[in-house]
């Protein structure tokens, strides 16, 4: 392709001329992320290359089916995008089989349930209150309504997964599937231990790696692929790709998973997102991504240490991953108030229940902080010490918000999100 070749991709000037109202929303969102610190553990900044694929004419194409086996004509070009994505996903994760069509992590999990269970079957999964996910058996979600999901949690003393409890529950309830993976568990999950328990009771092992897939891709933490029957993941968190999901599985389950994604739970794939996933997998195969993943984990450890040094209590004593969960009860501030105070200072994070939280999810006793975004901005250990101090100041001294805003501006000036290219 030459630069002169016409490409009907993102053209902001055209959007601004035709629809200034929506164009302004796009500009304001870039200004918002440039103007503050994003500590939401499940967010990241997709690269300009990923955004270019997302903003392409591939959005137009109906392609129900799989490459070479579509229910529409004219799929020979988008087939190439999906084949590239599949090849790269298999190679990146060392998996037998991949499916890159799920629209989200929740859709990937729906497909995994559909492939492996029948309605009414029993599964074992981490309690949402202890760091699980809605799709791990919450009563307000398909998983809790259509399946009998028995929850396991963390120990009250160590705040770590109690593998003895998981085994006892598995022996007692004989689940057909065991799910591990979490949204606010800061520690490594022992996939080998889960594999052993699943084998003991003859259950499938589903690893929901939505949060940790980027760390696994970069080799910063051990991969779940050798242990799991099925790994579900998202592409927009640590992996830094487009918003979306994916599934990895053994050869044995390939056709069950593919049929569960399409036609059982989804129709036409989003081919622009599939192409963007291919771009993200390509980026994650580069050595720079391994360095990025290692930095995400090192930054989270430093951030957790900094918060601890300033009087906050990290749940489980720290982190091995990209996030820390902070118990605020010692400060007498709720998670909701902390979220508001940080927002006022230009720091975006989310309130989060902590294990055995006496407060409801609308209030909570904790906050969750993550480092994927700030690491993408090039921040490292010294900046994490400053971020920790900023978060503590914002929460503990809301009256001094003006000085905290200045410190946030100092960090974003030297490490901007989406640096301007003039
Ligand atoms: N909502 C995501 C998170 O923030 O962890 C999980 O789906």
Task: Give me the secondary-structure category.
Answer: alpha/beta
Query: Spans with pLDDT under 50 lasting ≥5 residues?
Result: none
Strand count, sense and barrel status of the largest sheet are: 7 strands, mixed
Distance between the termini: 23 Å
- Tally of DSSP β-strands: 15
**Under the CATH scheme, which architecture of the largest domain would be assigned?**
3-Layer(aba) Sandwich
How many helical elements? 16
Average pLDDT, to the nearest integer? 96
How many domains, in number, for the residues? 2
Features:
single chain, Aspartate Aminotransferase, domain 2, 7-stranded mixed β-sheet, 13% strand, 2 domains, Aspartate Aminotransferase, domain 1
Condensed summary:
The chain has 422 residues and is an alpha/beta fold. The protein has helices at 12-18, 20-34, 48-54, 76-93, 105-116, 142-146, 163-173, 191-201, 213-217, 254-265, 271-284, 287-309, 335-344, 372-376, 381-396, 401-414; strands spanning 37-38, 65-66, 69-70, 97-99, 122-126, 148-152, 177-180, 204-208, 230-234, 245-249, 313-314, 323-327, 347-348, 350-352, 366-370.
Q: Could you characterize what this model shows?
A:
With 422 residues, the protein is of the alpha/beta class. It has two domains: 57-284, Type I PLP-dependent aspartate aminotransferase-like (Major domain) (Aspartate Aminotransferase, domain 2, 3-Layer(aba) Sandwich); 288-414, Aspartate Aminotransferase, domain 1, CATH 3.90.1150. The chain is 44% helix and 13% strand. The chain is built from 16 helices and 15 strands. Strands 4-10-9-8-7-5-6 form a seven-stranded mixed sheet, with helices on both faces. A four-stranded antiparallel sheet has the order 11-12-15-14. The mean pLDDT is 96. The structure holds D-serine. D-serine binds at residues 42, 105, 133, 183.
């Amino acid at each position: 392709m030459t630069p002169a070749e016409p490409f009907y991709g993102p053209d902001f000037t055209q959007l601004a001329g035709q629809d200034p109202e929506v164009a302004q929303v796009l500009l304001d969102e870039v200004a918002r992320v440039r103007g503050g610190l994003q500590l939401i553990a499940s967010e990241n900044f997709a690269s300009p290359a990923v955004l270019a694929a997302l903003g392409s004419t591939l959005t137009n194409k109906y392609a129900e089916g799989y490459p070479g086996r579509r229910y529409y004509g004219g799929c020979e070009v988008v087939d190439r995008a999906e084949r590239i994505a599949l090849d790269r996903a298999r190679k990146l994760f060392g998996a037998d089989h991949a499916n890159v069509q799920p629209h989200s992590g929740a859709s990937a999990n729906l497909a995994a349930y559909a492939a492996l269970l029948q309605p009414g079957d029993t599964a074992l999964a981490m309690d949402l209150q202890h760091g699980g996910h809605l799709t791990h058996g919450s009563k307000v979600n398909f998983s809790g309504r259509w399946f009998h999901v028995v929850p396991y949690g963390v120990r009250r003393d160590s705040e770590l997964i109690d593998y003895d409890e998981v085994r006892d529950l598995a022996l007692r309830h004989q689940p057909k599937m065991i799910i591990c993976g979490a949204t606010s568990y800061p520690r490594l999950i022992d996939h080998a231990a889960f594999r052993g328990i699943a084998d003991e009771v003859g259950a499938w092992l589903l690893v929901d790696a939505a949060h940790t897939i980027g760390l696994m891709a970069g080799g910063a933490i051990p991969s779940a692929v050798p242990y799991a029957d099925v790994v579900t993941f998202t592409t927009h968190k640590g992996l830094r790709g487009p918003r979306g999901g994916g599934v990895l599985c053994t050869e044995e389950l390939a056709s069950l998973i593919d049929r569960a994604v399409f036609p059982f739970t989804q129709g036409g794939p989003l081919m622009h997102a599939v192409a963007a996933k291919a771009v993200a997998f390509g980026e994650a195969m580069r050595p720079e991504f391994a360095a990025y993943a290692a930095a995400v984990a090192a930054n989270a450890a430093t951030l957790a240490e900094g918060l601890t040094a300033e009087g906050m209590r990290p749940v489980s004593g720290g982190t091995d991953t990209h996030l820390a969960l902070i118990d605020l009860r010692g400060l007498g501030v709720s998670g909701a108030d902390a979220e508001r105070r940080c927002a006022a200072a230009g720091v975006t994070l989310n309130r989060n229940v902590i294990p055995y939280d006496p407060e409801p999810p609308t209030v909570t006793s904790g906050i969750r902080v993550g480092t994927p975004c700030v690491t993408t901005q090039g921040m490292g250990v010294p900046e994490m010490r400053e971020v920790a101090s900023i978060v503590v100041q914002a929460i503990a001294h809301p009256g001094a918000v003006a000085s905290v805003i200045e410190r946030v501006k100092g960090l974003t000036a030297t490490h901007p999100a989406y640096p301007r290219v003039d």
